[in-house]
Specification:
Blueprint (H helix, E strand, L loop, with lengths): L1 H10 L7 H14 L3 E5 L2 H11 L7 E4 L9 H5 L3 E4 L22 E5 L10 H11 L2 E5 L7 E2 L2 E2 L6 E5 L12 E5 L2 H11 L23 H31 L6 E4 L6 E3 L4 E6 L9 H10 L4 E2 L9 H7 L5 H7 L9 H10 E5 L7 H16 L1 H4 L3
Parallel strand pairs: 2-3, 2-4, 4-5, 5-8
Antiparallel strand pairs: 1-9, 6-7, 6-11, 8-9, 10-12, 12-14, 13-14
Bound molecules: pyridoxal-5'-phosphate (PLP).
Length: 385
C-alpha cells in the first residue's frame, strides 16, 4: 500500500487522467463481474450518478427501503424526484420484494434495492419486477462489497450498482464511491455524470451531457486498489465469526442474529450483524436500555436506523416549492408514512454490531454472547436505571 501511494506521489498525477484511477476502475469492474466501473467521490453521489445515467428526472418516483442510511435517498430528493417507501421484511430487514409492485404507478421510474448489512436483496425478484414494469434498477451496494446473490455479485444484477468507500465500509479510502454497469450506454452516462458531462474519449472542453465534477482522486484509487485483494478473505472471516456468533445465540433467549446465512446468498459481506431483540425475554428491559447495558459491557452495539421518512431532511424536502404541490397532488404525506415493520425494528426490536467486530477472534464472539446472557440474567436490576 505504501509503495503504491509513493508511486502516486512521485508521478505527480494526483487527479483526473492518473493511470491508477483507470487501473482501480478496471480491477473493480473485473471483481464485480461487469465491463465498466466508474469511480466517484462517495456512495451518495454514486447514486446521483446512477440516477442521472438511467434518466431519472424531477417528479419521477423511485422505490426504496425506509430502513437505510439517508445517503440512499438524498440523491433522489436532490434531483427533485420522489422517494416511495416499501416496508422491510422482518426476516432480513431488507425491502420486502413481495410488496414492491403495490408501490408502482405511472410515475415510477426506478427501484433502489439496498443490500443492507452486506446481505443481498433477492435480485431475481427485483429484476423481474423491473423488467415487467420497464423500470431501472440501481443496486445500493454501499454495504455489500463482494456480496453475491446466487453466484452473481451485488452491483452486477441491476442496470447499475453503487458503492461507498467511506470510512466505515468493508473497503475504504476515507471517502469514495463507484458505479458499476453491464451496459455500454449506461457506462457513457456514468462517465459523463461524474465528469462534467464529457464523452468517453471526447474533448476536454466538450460537455455534451449534463454532469458535474464528482471524480475520485489518485490517492483514493491507490488505497482502494490495494484492498481489493484482501476483501474476499476478510468477508470470509466475518462470515465464519457471524455463523459462530449465531450458533452461540441459540442459548441466549431473546436475541437472534438476522439473515446470517440466508438461502440464495452465496457470499455475505457482513457489513453489520443485524439482531432481533425480544424485551419480554429480558424481563421487559427495553431495547434502548439493553443497548446501553451492552455498551457498558464493552459490546459496541447500535440501535440502528430511524425509518428514513421521519428524518427532518425529508420534511424539509416536502416543503420545497416545486415538490410540495407534487406531493399534494399524489396524496403523499411523509409525516403520515407508516411502514410497520421498519417502525417496529427501529423502535424496539432491532439492533446491530459493526463488521469490525467480526474480524476478531472466536473468543470475542463468545464474549458477546456471554455479555448478552449476563444482561438477560440481570435485566430486572437494569430496568429504568
Ligand atoms: C446503504 C447506504 N447507502 C448510501 C450510503 C452513502 O455512502 P457515502 O457515505 O459514501 O456517501 C451509505 C453510507 O454510509 C450507506 O450505508
Amino acid at each position: 500500500m505504501m509503495e503504491s501511494l509513493k508511486k502516486v506521489w512521485e508521478s505527480t498525477e494526483w487527479g483526473v487522467g492518473a493511470p491508477v484511477i483507470d487501473e482501480f476502475e478496471q480491477c473493480w469492474a473485473e471483481y464485480i463481474g461487469v465491463p465498466y466501473a466508474g469511480s466517484c467521490v462517495n456512495g451518495t453521489e454514486a447514486i446521483t450518478v446512477a440516477l442521472r445515467a438511467t434518466g431519472v428526472q424531477q417528479g419521477d418516483e423511485v422505490i426504496t427501503s425506509p430502513y437505510t442510511f439517508i445517503g440512499t435517498i438524498t440523491p433522489i430528493m436532490t434531483l427533485g424526484a420522489i422517494p416511495r417507501f416499501v416496508d422491510i421484511s422482518p426476516d432480513n430487514y431488507l425491502i420486502d420484494t413481495g410488496r414492491i409492485e403495490e408501490a408502482i404507478n405511472e410515475h415510477t421510474r426506478a427501484i433502489i434495492p439496498v443490500h443492507l448489512a452486506g446481505c443481498p436483496v433477492d435480485m431475481e425478484k427485483v429484476c423481474a419486477i423491473a423488467e415487467k414494469h420497464n423500470l431501472a434498477v440501481i443496486e445500493d451496494c454501499a454495504q455489500a462489497h463482494g456480496a453475491e446473490w446466487k453466484g452473481r455479485k451485488a452491483g452486477a444484477w441491476g442496470h447499475t450498482g453503487t458503492f461507498s468507500f467511506q470510512t466505515s465500509k468493508n473497503m475504504s479510502s476515507g471517502e469514495g464511491g463507484a458505479v458499476t454497469t453491464r451496459e455500454p450506454g449506461l457506462a457513457d452516462g456514468i462517465f459523463a455524470a461524474k465528469n462534467c458531462g464529457r464523452l468517453r474519449g471526447g474533448v476536454w472542453y466538450g460537455h455534451e451531457h449534463f454532469g458535474t465534477n464528482l471524480r475520485l482522486s489518485a490517492w483514493q484509487a491507490a488505497l482502494l486498489l490495494g484492498q481489493i485483494g484482501d476483501l474476499e478473505a476478510e468477508n470470509n472471516k466475518r462470515h465464519e465469526n457471524a455463523i459462530y456468533l449465531d450458533s452461540l445465540l441459540d442459548s441466549v433467549e431473546g436475541v437472534d442474529a438476522v439473515a446470517v446465512n440466508p438461502e440464495g446468498v452465496t457470499h455475505h459481506a457482513h457489513h453489520l450483524v443485524l439482531f432481533h431483540y425480544e424485551s419480554e425475554k429480558f424481563d421487559g428491559l427495553d431495547r434502548n436500555e439493553f443497548c446501553k447495558a451492552c455498551r457498558a459491557e464493552g459490546i459496541p452495539v447500535g440501535e440502528g436506523y430511524v425509518p428514513i421518512y421521519r428524518q427532518g431532511s425529508v420534511s424539509e424536502f416536502s416543503n420545497w416549492n416545486y415538490i410540495k404541490p407534487v406531493l399534494e397532488q399524489r396524496g403523499i404525506d411523509y409525516s403520515k408514512e407508516m411502514c410497520p415493520v421498519a417502525e417496529r425494528i427501529s423502535g424496539s426490536e432491532g439492533f446491530w454490531i459493526h463488521m469490525g467486530v467480526l474480524l476478531g477472534s472466536k473468543s470475542d464472539m463468545e464474549a458477546i454472547a456471554e455479555g448478552f446472557e449476563k444482561i438477560r440474567r440481570n435485566a430486572s436490576l437494569l430496568k429504568n436505571q
